[in-house]
Design goal:
Radius of gyration: 26 Å
Structural class: alpha+beta
Helix content: 25-40%
Shape: globular
Number of helices: 13
Oligomer: single chain
Low-confidence stretches: 178-253, 677-689
Strand content: 25-35%
Number of strands: 28
Distance between the termini: 55 Å
Length: about 700
């Protein structure tokens, strides 16, 4: 579409009762981000109240008809996805505005390939709109959904705001707080943005007894604290005019989370075990694990609306009353089929139905089973088939190949969930974002305990595959040749492992953690993986990068199959003024609690490498990594090394376990420390010119 064009959704697809809107962008460096927001407007073009302003701290609006799903990895990066249940949008809402904004003085001109895509409930793309001429703005309206004669239409807008999110929100009637008492929160937000933080913390509200809550967070640009938003406030005349206090959209109400640490036990001794809602001690076979895991997850989905909606919104399910079923018998020729579960959502008298096929304990999905469920769903008019297993799906590399009968008018979507993603969503809700009440939080806690128990079989991706050992041997004896299909299998499983690491770490931190894929936008993922497989054969190394929200750089992971070592590293920029030795000392002071074997390398401007050394040696002699030739310091590379597990699975010596441990150690002992603000420079350290 071009700017200003509009189209009726019903003319594009029959499955537009719910749609998915995705916003994406890229940058040459792989860095740069923006926050998505949605405004629900009435007939006057204004929000009815602040609850119609949907952003990070208020991710669900319009009675559940609009939900921000967060970032999702794609073949060439990531994109922000928003679920719209158009049949459930309140009747008073005439228009829904989709926007994004940047923070910390950043502009959209620093990003490339700004785009919006819209897909129907079956996942088929209907609309693509590329936003242009957004160089000097910090907020952009990508598009809007609006009603005309009972039909939903989409308009490509592409309007920019130099005044940022605060200016955009004010135009549409979002109330802005002028309480001067929030000045401290504004100043804290400015400090965090200087450190690369994307969000400003609010002061926590009073906690309900026994249930401490996580601090509410709003997008940093929503505070109106930076210079971009200054133009949103009218200028004051006269030299004595005082600056107005910080302004920001009001935040959503607090929700219930569970404490990170357990209360003191009332048991007489450690042999007493707490009673669990979902026991795991009696599980003996794979069939029992699959049956119980399916029942446990589906029952919690039906009882905790936030959790059920979080798992199904990305599949095109509407927001409505959800019921779930297990061991359902459905006719299929002479032999009836029994899918592991059924999810059914009712909204305004209409039903959305998905069949569920579950595997646990690393068992693979069976193509004939999934094909049969796709055929049954098509005949019965169901909308989707959802597979749930330990495996992680990749773009361009389906876990199961199924045949789609093009003669059938009704389309069935095939979606996949990994157990790691289910755990991630449960952690995000009970640890960071909160749910409606304490009972729901407790249910999610019980679910999480079950899924993470060693007997449940729901541990996520745990096996590097049959090709792992032959590839390692081929690299050791230099017999692995480019084009070997086994190397491609290892690359695909490495990508699955990295995505699972991101899910796990993101759930623990409550932050966006995404893999970085430095590939051209729109490139074929199969071609990209084939190139990486050739590099593996040639160099004997697996490489990956992950971006953790709020960190100053990208966390790099390198698995050297020749030496059997894992390297985790991060490049920390050093742009602050001062003498070279002063900058080195400030870095070492931040790393007070870092391990002694941390390697520090000075990055310099121009060709050649800078000096390096271990933290243990540099603490008494920081001058050892100051360039002797006077080269300009651009930053520092911090690295830790760890022995790589030899097994391909999840045993203590397994490769997957060693990657998890290496990333956890590096983040806790290194990355978390460099996130901290640098100590204030003394006057003696200031350059004299």
């Amino acid at each position: 579409m071009v700017k200003g064009a509009n189209v009726g959704l019903a003319a594009l697809s029959e499955d537009v009762g719910s749609v998915m809107v995705s916003l994406g962008w890229s940058s040459a460096t792989g860095e740069g981000d923006a926050d998505v927001s949605v405004l629900l407007l009435d007939g006057d073009g204004k929000v009815r109240s602040d609850v119609d302003f949907c952003f990070y701290n208020n991710p669900v609006a319009g009675n559940g008809s609009v939900q921000l799903l967060g970032k999702t990895p794609t073949a060439d990066g990531s994109e922000d996805r928003i679920s719209f249940d158009l049949d459930a949008v309140p009747e008073e809402i005439d228009k829904v505005v989709v926007a994004a904004s940047r923070y910390g003085g950043s502009r959209f001109g620093e990003l490339d390939d700004l785009r919006l895509t819209l897909a129907d409930s079956a996942g088929d793309g209907l609309v693509r709109f590329a936003v242009e001429e957004a160089d000097e703005v910090s907020a952009v309206i990508f598009g809007e959904l609006y009603r005309r004669s009972g039909e939903w239409k989409f308009r490509a807008v592409g309007q920019g705001y130099a005044s940022g999110l605060a200016g955009l929100a004010t135009d549409y009637g979002v109330d802005i707080d002028d309480d001067a008492a929030e000045e401290d929160a504004r100043e804290q937000g400015e400090q965090e943005r200087e450190q690369g933080q994307g969000y400003a913390e609010e002061a926590p509200l009073p906690e309900p007894a026994g249930q401490p809550t996580a601090p509410a967070r709003v997008p940093a640009q929503a505070t109106g604290a930076h210079a971009d938003d200054a133009s949103a406030a009218p200028a004051q005349d006269g030299p004595a005019a005082a600056p107005k206090p910080a302004r920001r959209p009001r935040t959503a109400k607090k929700k219930v989370t569970l404490p990170r640490t357990a209360r003191k036990s009332l048991a007489d001794n450690e042999s007493w075990r707490s009673a669990r809602l979902f026991p795991v001690s009696a599980l003996k076979s794979d069939r029992e694990r699959e049956t119980r895991a399916t029942s446990v997850v589906l029952s919690v989905m039906a009882q905790v609306p936030e959790f059920g909606r979080r798992l199904t919104a990305g599949f095109g399910a509407p927001a409505g009353r959800m019921e779930t079923f297990t061991e359902v018998t459905l006719p299929h020729g002479e032999s009836p089929r029994r899918p592991d579960g059924v999810v059914r959502v009712e909204r305004a008298g209409k039903l959305w139905t998905a069949l569920v096929e579950t595997k646990t304990n690393g068992n693979a999905l069976k193509p004939d089973q999934v094909q049969a469920y796709m055929d049954i769903a098509a005949r019965r008019g169901y909308e989707a088939v959802i597979t749930l297993s330990n495996d992680v799906a990749l773009d361009g590399s389906p876990l199961v190949d199924v045949r789609i009968d093009g003669r059938r008018k009704h389309k069935v979507a095939l979606w996949h969930l990994s157990w790691a993603e289910v755990v991630h969503q449960a952690q995000m809700l009970i640890r960071h974002e909160g749910v409606g009440n304490a009972a729901h939080a407790w249910l999610l806690q019980e679910l999480l305990h079950y899924l993470q128990h060693e007997n449940s079989g729901c541990h996520g991706f745990q096996n590097m595959g049959a090709a792992w050992v032959p590839v390692r041997r081929g690299i050791d004896d230099e017999t692995l040749c480019q084009g070997d299909a086994r190397a491609l299998e290892v690359i695909e499983n490495w990508e699955r492992l990295v995505r699972q690491v991101c899910l796990r770490l993101g759930g623990e931190l409550g932050q966006k953690v995404l893999p970085v894929q430095r590939a051209r936008r729109g490139s074929d993922p199969g071609v990209r993986r084939a190139e990486l497989a050739d590099h593996l054969c040639e160099q004997g190394r697996l490489n990956a990068e992950i971006r953790i929200e709020g960190t100053p750089g990208v966390l790099a992971i390198t698995a050297d199959l020749r030496t059997g070592k894992l390297r985790t590293s991060i490049e920390v920029p050093s742009a602050e003024p001062g003498y070279p030795l002063s900058r080195v000392k400030r870095l070492i002071r931040r790393l007070t609690e870092a391990p002694a074997d941390l390697h520090i390398e000075t990055l310099v401007d121009g060709p050649g490498a800078g000096p390096r050394g271990t933290l243990e040696r540099l603490r008494p002699e920081p001058a050892d990594i100051v360039p002797k030739d006077g080269a300009q310091i651009t930053g520092f590379r911090l690295s830790l090394f760890k022995g790589m597990g030899s097994g391909r699975g999840s045993a203590e010596t397994g490769f997957i376990r060693s990657v998890d441990e290496a990333v956890d150690r590096f983040h806790a002992q290194v990355v978390a420390q460099v996130e901290a603000p640098a100590p204030r420079r003394s006057r003696s350290e200031e350059p004299t010119g």
